[in-house]
TrEMBL record:
UniProt cross-references to SUPFAM superfamilies, sorted A to Z: Winged helix' DNA-binding domain
GO molecular function ontology, one term from the record: DNA-binding transcription factor activity
Every HTH marR-type domain range: 13-64
Alphabetized InterPro entries for the sequence: ArsR-like_HTH, HTH_MarR-typ, WH-like_DNA-bd_sf, WH_DNA-bd_sf
Organism: Streptomyces lasalocidi (Streptomyces lasaliensis)
Region (Disordered) residue spans: 94-119
Name listed for the protein in its UniProt record: MarR family transcriptional regulator
Amino acid sequence: MNPTVRARAFLTAHARVLLAIARDPACRVRDIALACHITERATSNVVRDLETAGYLTRRRVGRNTRYTIDADRALHHPSEAHLSVGRLLTLATPVPQAGERATPVTRAEGRGSGPTAPW
């Protein structure tokens, strides 16, 4: 590979954050940031963008935040408008086999991960 050519991520930060939330709807911003290799501030901005665009909603549950993804929401770009968020997530996330649990986002600072839920 030519060292002067910068590597490009195939998925945008928005797609990676949405996938992390789909894997673990109760994950913390810190955990999403670690999983996506972006800063916590960037993660917060992306989550806000996704919420403003209607792709997800946030609700407080005690001291935690729980995310709900609108799987029926159409993708914004005209070339992908025929696809729903749920379809994209189905294509991009592994489906657990019978008896397996979905892989949650890894928790920072040794905090245990709770049960995962479908988006």
